[in-house]
Sequence to fold (557 residues):
Amino acid sequence: MPTRRLLSLWFPRFGAERLIRLDPGLIGVPLAVLRDTGQMQVVESLSAEASAAGVHIGQPFRDAQAMCPELVTRLQNPQAEAAFLSVLCRWAGKYSPWVAQEPPSALMLDITGCAHLFGGEAEMLAAMQADCAVLGLQVEGGVADTPGAAWALARFAGSAGAENHRSGDAIDQEARATRSRAVKRRHWTKGGAAPAVQGGGQPVARIAPPGQMHGALAALPVAALRIEPATREALARLGLRQIGDVLGQPRASLARRFGQGLVLRIDQALGGVPEPISPAKATPHFAVRMTLPDPIGLFDDVMAAVERLLERLCDLLRDKGQGARVVRLQAYRADQTMQWVDVGLARASDQPERIRPLLAMKVSEIEAGYGIDMLRLAVVRSEALPRRKQVGHLDAARTVMERQAAEAAGGRAMEDLFGRIGARIGLERVARLHPAESHIPEKEAQVMAAAWSEPHEGEWPAPVAQRPLCLWRPEPVMVPDHPRLPECFRFRGRDLQVAEVVGPERIAPEWWLDDPLWRSGTRDYWQVDCRDGTRLWLFYAHGGTMSSGWFCQGAFA
Fold:
């Protein structure tokens, strides 16, 4: 079995370069992406020009502006950066089918058995860097047997000397003149020559040979172990600034003094403890486009192009067994602007004749301007469609008849009607009623979105007693507070005479729920026929957390 090989891709200027790609006017200027912490704004990402001016990540905005007055700043957009990272994740799929995201600015690839397709690991890494250079992105990569080692090599290898963590008692972090005098005094006896200042070591390779994690990580700083800042500072105070210094210490002493977290990170980096990676879920992507030789703007021309695009799009959906629920039509205009419209279907479909009428209703909303030179049709949301079962000759006729009967009963026609109405007012506003298991009158039916629910099968459950045609929130009735209804009462500004009453029907509230509308306690419902022909549904509330009294909740036909 081949050794598992992992590649970590880190984009050190991810946020800044994303903005530069969107706005070419930011090329060549010092740019800083700021993150709002609630107390102040700190630098989250930098362009190369800003780094050359001395600005660093984590620096407060005021300090960065004082250091570089011409600094251009933009606020961080975490949602947009997450979406851009997802795009890069799909791009990395050309090198490995196993790609995981490491927010906010890194990817992890399992390249086991893939590197030879590109000539080797070094050639694969060089090809990735060349692709990113074309995209305007700076990338650093590291290859190792474990995710921890690949993460460390991508961020800390390749520079001369180990990057030490700053601490107040380190001589090599003092001013240059002070450091030179300190080095001369150290190990210098009177009459001898002062020793030369030790320079940095050789750059550490970003590709660790298989099985040689110890040697590849030894020269890296302890920050490459992904440990907490407090642990890193404590190690620096003891003079343990490189991973090799830590690996030479007894494990029991490290665990006792710095906790199990440090030992766990060491084992993960060296492969002693497995560290699984979760690849990003592959989402189906269906889109087609058409580039036009000359700009168009007429409705018939746009629909003719949509006809051709729909055929290709539905073929892609059928190949994957998917159906479109939301389709987006994007119109790219000659003035470098774009406008789009979305249409939703009540049921997922891969049939062009079911999507075309909905798009025809929305095309008129697109303003052609100076002309449309490209059209793009994309599926924003898709669902799996059940495949048709193969049947024999004996069952084929019966299956066709059943499908035709279902369509004649209004199944498909009703779904198309939902789609057309939804294109006008929104699918979420088209609703249907389903029976519910509740003895409360206003809860005997539940409202469900028609596009995301199936119609009720069978007969509607018969109520235990006759219910009014119209129901509303209980409204008070002007009548003395007494369980027996008098011969006349006042409701909605009218004096009504009682002709006949039917009842009572006692309904108790759901004691396991605290419904504000039922805090008046148990109710006695009456069907009241008035002399003017009005038939109302009244009840007497016996009182609970609210006072008792008469109320009207509905009217019969």
The first strand starts at residue 6 and ends at 10. DSSP finds 16 helices and 19 strands in the chain. The first helix runs from residue 14 to 22. The CA atoms of residues 472 and 553 lie 5 Å apart.
